[in-house]
Write a structure and sequence with these properties.
This is NADPH-dependent FMN reductase-like domain-containing protein. Helices cover 30% and strands 23% of the residues. It is of the alpha/beta class and 183 residues long. It has a single domain, classed as Rossmann fold. Strands 2-3-1-4-5-6 form a six-stranded parallel sheet, sandwiched between helices.
């Protein structure tokens, strides 16, 4: 199975929004859309909006796993070639938390680091800062999703055209990465 699991380093960092954007990136794949997996209380279907697809690729999945506890094992998240996206606030603490998850993945399965990505999510009033690129293994892509109020409104995640330029570019880069990870 080819799967992408989206985890957060804390509550409210955007795992459900990013899982919805991930599903949209590959929903129209010629072989079909992936399974969409999320806890009932996470409103993933609501964030996706229209989750219908003509075909389903039963061997592909996008999973919104919510917050990854610091004591939770990471090996099951990257088992069988699964990809992992670590979502964290774009802040010094967020960078540190994400780095701790990446280190745990590397310790559990050194090959899984090639299937691990970090998404730094902007917050209202925070324009970002250093991305810590020098602190990440070369194989780990670090993407930036700047703050955009449209991504924080209730209901379905807006189409990329409804986002500001910076968020649109960040979301497009995320969707491109998802398409590669679930190819």
């Amino acid at each position: 199975m080819s799967a992408l699991t989206v985890v957060g380093t804390g509550g409210g960092v955007g795992t459900t929004t990013l899982a919805a954007l991930a599903f949209r990136a590959v929903r129209d794949h010629p072989e079909g859309a992936p399974w969409l997996i999320g806890a009932a209380d996470r409103d993933l279907a609501l964030r996706v909006g229209d989750d219908r697809a003509d075909r389903i690729r039963v061997d592909h999945a996008v999973r919104d796993a919510g917050v990854l506890r610091t004591d939770a094992p990471v090996a099951p998240l990257v088992a069988d070639g699964a990809a992992l996206a670590v979502v964290t606030p774009w802040s010094p603490v967020g960078l540190s938390d994400a780095r701790a998850v990446v280190d745990r993945v590397s310790a559990a399965d050194p090959e899984a680091i090639r299937r691990t990505a970090v998404v730094l999510v902007g917050r209202r009033g925070w324009r970002g800062g250093r991305n810590g690129a020098d602190a990440w293994p070369d194989a780990v892509p670090v993407l930036h999703l700047p703050y955009d109020p449209a991504l924080h409104r209730p209901g379905p995640v807006p189409e990329l055209a409804g986002l500001g330029r910076a968020a649109r570019e960040g979301a497009a880069a995320w969707q491109d990465l998802v398409a590669r990870l679930l190819a």
